[in-house]
Amino acid sequence: MAVNSPLPVATDLKPVAGIEIGFAEAGIKKPNRKDVLVLTLAPTATVSGVFTMNRFCAAPVQIAKAHLAAVRDGAKPIRALMVNTGNANAGTGAVGLALANESCAALAGLLGCEAGQILPFSTGVILEPLPVGKIVAALPQAVADQRADSWFNAAEAIMTTDTQPKAASRMVDIAGHSVTMSGISKGAGMIKPNMATMLGFLAFDAKVAQPVLDALVKHAADRSFNCITIDGDTSTNDSFMLIATGAGTLVVDSVDTPEYAALAAAVTELSLFLAQSIVRDGEGATKFITITVEGGKDVEECRKVAYSIGHSPLVKTAFFASDPNLGRILCAIGYAGVDDLDVDKLNLYLDDVWVAKDGGRNPDYKEEDGQRVMSQSEITVRVKLARGAAEATVYTCDLSHEYVTINADYRS
Amino acid sequence: MAVNSPLPVATDLKPVAGIEIGFAEAGIKKPNRKDVLVLTLAPTATVSGVFTMNRFCAAPVQIAKAHLAAVRDGAKPIRALMVNTGNANAGTGAVGLALANESCAALAGLLGCEAGQILPFSTGVILEPLPVGKIVAALPQAVADQRADSWFNAAEAIMTTDTQPKAASRMVDIAGHSVTMSGISKGAGMIKPNMATMLGFLAFDAKVAQPVLDALVKHAADRSFNCITIDGDTSTNDSFMLIATGAGTLVVDSVDTPEYAALAAAVTELSLFLAQSIVRDGEGATKFITITVEGGKDVEECRKVAYSIGHSPLVKTAFFASDPNLGRILCAIGYAGVDDLDVDKLNLYLDDVWVAKDGGRNPDYKEEDGQRVMSQSEITVRVKLARGAAEATVYTCDLSHEYVTINADYRS
């Protein structure tokens, strides 16, 4: 199930010059399923990423961060990214780090580079040992099958409880240069990214200096993967990686250029599409909810209010039921932690319907108007705080029986 | 459904000298259902309470707080408490305040006192106008039927989505004085009290000075109603009221006495029973979970970690499924917001089973041991942070299909 299921899946995914993709069926959790992905990069590529803030961040996250930091300090550039599903290699302590390093070394051996030039990513069950033997055995196949046009396979290879692959391509013209970008993402539960999503990879063929790419990935993540929530659970493995292969003609050396601004806009748009695709395919989701909070003193308090609404099980079940029980939204605003909030100035809209006026029920509000909007599969909640000029938007989904079923059965 | 359903309901509820109870069927939301409750107090009584921290606190909460404050400033003592179900009178602005005051005035007229001597309480749907006419019409019946032994009826009259009434009595001997205490509570969803529960009323027949009672209610709430969560939604109407009728022989004038200590222990024990009863009857609950976090730097961070576990939909669905998918607990600890947490020192136990050792899977942990504990209806999660000497305990329940069903259907 997904909102407006089936979701449109792009079938015209475009190869990005400077990046090749291979995959394999390692049988990590289940047989006959793509579960290992390898992306190899041109020597000209730069890579940057944002990662989970979870203190129990997974072993591969720790290693990927260390390898990226080493590159910034002058080590050899990243040659490949490696992803496995079926096991998160999180909550696994020193043993988990050793196993992740072992998989990096195995891939480095196949590619003739150093282990430090590999970025590992894992997603799946936490607290179970990584079956590194299966992964190492599958890597030669993934490397042998490398192709530039395997983006759809890549999107499939990183799926877990996702019902559909998530991928899209864009071609944009920036200052006379044609830039091709393709991206994939995965994730359907344990989604409340704080620095990134479960997994997202976005590549394009411009040449971008490392500090510029570092700024760009943060810019895009803050406006996409960091604005979504499904169940409020910030995963141990969230990673969003941006790859500039350097194989095209556009060169961006500074953030203070029109080229950077145009590239940032395009990358952010595609990132937002990939992030919203995760919400639309949220575990058990039947509705896609946009929550916009305006008039806050700062963005932080707007996000607090938006997440408070987006995480409330009572609000989410009301959306599932198409029930305009909208007092639950006021309640969630009230406990969002904005201590000096003056509720008498607060206004609440559901799409075009003015529900609460100056902190109370709008005298002109009619239940049937609320009912009409709640029955839609895409709904916008708009809150006006009347405290300042800041605003923030968060994307989420409803909470259905299917969510409980999926998560009560996940390991079986 | 409730944990270990049906819950034991005390049938030997004891009258508390100095308090009389009446109820009525006002038909606020449904006919033929007790939905109005009146508790009248002896002139010797003192009353104190703790209330929701939700900024959208309901009209009756605002009025009850104001009336209690006036008493502390020398106004006439509280004569009666009045409760209605079926409508929360929250998110109702100035109109809601006027309607709540109207109901206070009506009851005051019947009792021959001032409106300021009445404390109003409401619970039910938010954002809908209070049908004050129905309440006012029902009050004479509630006043006419006042009896000392109607505690069970009182517990029934405040139920909403509760499947069972929640009530208990205790008789304790303090310094040679026999003290009788009876209490009731209600609530099954929108439960993450921050200063109190949905509704809890506890009365006893000792004579207690106002400042002492103010300290006592906070002491008891912090160790009971403020340690539970069902869905993380802090209600607009949470109130926990403590009533010392003054009709018995025990007098407590200071917190620095053995009598206060004994009374505080007894009141806290009964409060905890009433609070835990709410969790056991949590919407759709099939399991009762105790989460104890030890070794924190302060109580606040222990509570953060405990609530992070207790609110995680993924942890709660794993409990529902009896699935020892315990990495989800580590994940929730990791995003609890303890920024300098050293996960390599963390240990996790499920009852007597040592699951995670020094941040990773305990090599001696066996899946079947975790499975055995997860299959129980009462489970203790114990986290050792190894950062200090503070600890905290939170009580919660699982997240089941039934929760979604109840909250998707609540208003229909």
Automatic annotation (TrEMBL), chains A, B:
One of its GO terms (biological process) is ornithine biosynthetic process. This is Arginine biosynthesis bifunctional protein ArgJ. Keywords: Acyltransferase, Amino-acid biosynthesis, Arginine biosynthesis, Autocatalytic cleavage, Cytoplasm, Multifunctional enzyme, Transferase. Pfam families: ArgJ. The keyword Ligase does not apply. Heterotetramer of two alpha and two beta chains. Catalyzes two activities which are involved in the cyclic version of arginine biosynthesis: the synthesis of N-acetylglutamate from glutamate and acetyl-CoA as the acetyl donor, and of ornithine by transacetylation between N(2)-acetylornithine and glutamate. Its main location: cytoplasm. InterPro entries: Arg_biosynth_ArgJ, ArgJ-like_dom_sf, ArgJ_beta_C. SUPFAM superfamilies: DmpA/ArgJ-like (SSF56266). GO terms for cellular component: cytoplasm. HAMAP family: ArgJ. It catalyses: L-glutamate + acetyl-CoA = N-acetyl-L-glutamate + CoA + H(+); N(2)-acetyl-L-ornithine + L-glutamate = N-acetyl-L-glutamate + L-ornithine. GO terms for molecular function: L-glutamate N-acetyltransferase activity; L-glutamate N-acetyltransferase activity, acting on acetyl-L-ornithine as donor. Substrate binds at residues 160, 186, 197, 283, 407, 412. The gene is argJ. It comes from Rugamonas rubra.
